[in-house]
Amino acid sequence: MSIVQADSLVKKYGGIAAVDGVSFSIEKGQIFGLLGPNGAGKTTTISILSTFLEPTGGEAAVDGLSVRRQAGKVREIIGFVPQEIALYPTLTALQNLKFYGKMYGLGGALLDERCRDVLELVELWERRHDNIEKFSGGMKRRINLGAGLLHGPRFLLLDEPTVGVDPQSREHIFDTIFKIRDNGATILYTSHYMEEVELLCDHIAIMDRGKVIASGTLKELLKMLGEGGVIELEVAPPGCPAGLKEKIQGQQEVTATRSEDNKLFVSSSNSARSLPPVLKVLEQSGCQISSLELYAPSLEKLFIQLTGKELRE
Ligand SMILES: Nc1ncnc2c1ncn2[C@@H]1O[C@H](COP(=O)(O)OP(=O)(O)OP(=O)(O)O)[C@@H](O)[C@H]1O
Ligand SMILES: [Mg+2]
After folding, report:
1. 32: domain range?
2. Would you say residue 306 lies in a domain?
């Protein structure tokens, strides 16, 4: 059953469409990833869903509630963790959380209890009386995340929650996200790190220039690249002898061959099986191999294939 439905969302700034006809649905209990490079429209999309930004066109609903007409009710059931850390540096971790809790309408013993739960969840209970300015970047991120959890939201929107954190803090954040999901919440996670969405997300939508350009489970997306992988070879002398690509193309399981300077890329539906005959062809053609790399299909490769550019700038 879906908890979020976005239909043809558009957000224009002057003549530019930051979001240009985005549609998707999120199933209850899913971790849904929105992956895309800088400026793809992730923050704009997530801001529309969390009612902080009015769309120019289209409609979205959270648990059946319209983000346009029932914004107040939507806000009661969602938690929004913004891309920019929004904490008061001269207040303690606990004071910051109490401030946010009050904004969500919590008070008294319930607020104290929720602050404790959240601080334990992000594993910073021991540091609750320290000022935020004394926290590391990763710790601030964890408190920022905690602030969005105080009222026990059913739908949590996280906008790049791991930017600028070390691997250990990232692990902490991932653990927290899995715990929240296991407690029954649905999560929308935006990132420009493909390894993160590969690891975390049940469903991934890839965005570029305001549009969703591919969507599916990781397995479904990788299938778009073929089952196999890519053999990348650096050969000397640079450039391919005439007819080499065609010869490689004819080998077992090879699906495509491309050359660039002294590099040769061989796509295969089974790279382990293709490798020996490909090496043999190169040897027979008098090519020296200076490096060889085998890689499995990845979201990065898919993104390059779909857009002709790299995900990371
Ligand atoms: N308030 C605004 N006024 C004008 N243009 C905007 C505004 N907000 C966003 N944009 C433009 O909309 C596009 C999408 O921006 P958005 O912040 O949604 O991207 P993003 O995918 O979140 O990028 P990042 O990974 O850098 O956070 C960009 O071209 C941006 O310049
Ligand atoms: Mg953003």
Report:
1. 2-222
2. no
- Residue position matching structure tokens 């699906």: 255
Give the model's confidence band at 299: pLDDT under 50 very low, under 70 low, under 90 confident, else very high.
Answer: confident
Domain boundary among 222, 245, 267: 222
Phi, psi (5° rounding) for residue 170? -65, -45
Output the pLDDT for position 169: 83
143 and 238 together in one domain: no
Q: Which-ligand-closest: CA of 48?
A: 1
Could you report how far apart the first and last alpha carbons of the chain are, in Å?
Answer: 37
Residue of 44, 49, 84 to test ligand 1 pocket, by largest number of atoms within 8 Å of CB: 44
> DSSP characters for 224-286?
TT-SSEEEEEEEESSSPPTTHHHHHHTSTTEEEEEEETTEEEEEESSHHHHHHHHHHHHHHTT
pLDDT the model gives residue 313 = 53
Whose CA is closest to atom 1 on ligand 1? 13
Kindly state if the Cβ of 9 falls inside 6 Å of ligand 1.
no
Task: Mark whether 269 and 206 lie in a shared domain.
Answer: no
Which residue has the least CA distance to atom 4 on ligand 1? 13
Same domain for 264 and 203: no
User: Quick one: 176 and 259 in the same domain?
Assistant: no
Regarding the beta carbon of 192 and ligand 1, being less than 6 Å apart is answered yes
Tally of domains within the chain: 2
The Cα 268–Cα 308 span in angstroms is 20
Say yes or no: CB of residue 39 within 6 Å of ligand 1: yes
Q: Whose CA is nearest to atom 31 of ligand 1?
A: 39
* pTM for this prediction: 0.81
